[in-house]
Amino acid sequence: ATGQVAAARAAAEKARLDFERAQRLFATQSITRPEMENATAQRDGSRAQLAAVQALLAEAQVGLRDTALTVPVDGDVMKKSVEPGAYTGPGLPAFVIGDVSSVKVVLGLPDIALHGVQLGQDVVVTTDALPGKSFAAKVSRIAAVADSVTRNFDVEVEIPNPDRLWKPGMIAGVELKSGGGHAPIPLLPLTAFVPSVKNKEQFAVMVIDGAGTNTRARIRDVVLGDVVGNRVAVTQGLNREEQVITTGATMVIDGERVEVVPQEQP
């Protein structure tokens, strides 16, 4: 296409010079009108031919750029679906790229074991592929519903992987820590949440503040996380040690005096 453009440009330049020469000759009546019209047509035709081959060159350049694959993020090649010289088409995947700087382990837990797992809980992960090594991780997600076949709840554990030791597809063992580490994220029933005063599209909770006769309800904005069963994780704005009104929260106003009634023991 580049050679065609060069040839067309040279032909257009020759036609232009012939046209200018014909103009001078026609002005002195040295050539006839049909000869002048022929020179004009040659000039216009060469211009059109040049524009056509330039359009073909631009199309070819776009096609050439499309043959180069670029990835907008850093990652590793997880799967290659094409080989050099193979035919492919638009929309067909060529490579699968993944960021393995952080990986996830997915395990299934029955409902009787789910109550002992909390979002943000510290765990220890090991694998036979890396003997003698253990990795600190945290629970990052707890499925809201059980798998329809196994009846287990999927629990995701996120592992920092800066050295790329973990590879997708590895089999891992997960050990729950019994204490210490990062405090688990609070989980509250849906009845505990009220609309935020500052932003009606966000949520808040009524926190118990004070003690004795000066105990009052204080509204506090919170940030919600995943849904776990019939409860919702509170990722920001609340500590697990704080008391929250979980029933009748919409009936209490900010600053109202409340009384905490101890739960009766069965």
Summarize the structure.
The chain has 266 residues and is α+β, with helices and mostly antiparallel strands. The chain folds into three domains: 65 residues, Helix Hairpins (Orthogonal Bundle); 77 residues, Efflux pump adaptor protein, beta barrel domain (Elongation Factor Tu (Ef-tu), domain 3, Beta Barrel), CATH 2.40.30.170; 65 residues, conserved putative lor/sdh protein from methanococcus maripaludis s2 fold (Beta Barrel), CATH 2.40.420.20. The protein contains three helices and twelve strands; from the N terminus they run H-H-E-E-E-H-E-E-E-E-E-E-E-E-E.
Describe the structure.
This protein has a 5-stranded antiparallel sheet. Helix 1 (2-27) packs antiparallel against helix 2 (33-66). The protein contains 3 helices and 12 strands. It folds into 3 domains: 2-66, Helix Hairpins (Orthogonal Bundle); 100-176, Beta Barrel (Elongation Factor Tu (Ef-tu), domain 3); 187-251, conserved putative lor/sdh protein from methanococcus maripaludis s2 fold. With 266 residues, the chain is α+β, with helices and mostly antiparallel strands. 24% of the residues lie in helices and 28% in strands. It has helices at 2-27, 33-66, 111-114, and strands at 76-80, 95-98, 102-109, 122-126, 135-142, 153-160, 173-176, 187-189, 193-195, 203-209, 216-228, 231-236.
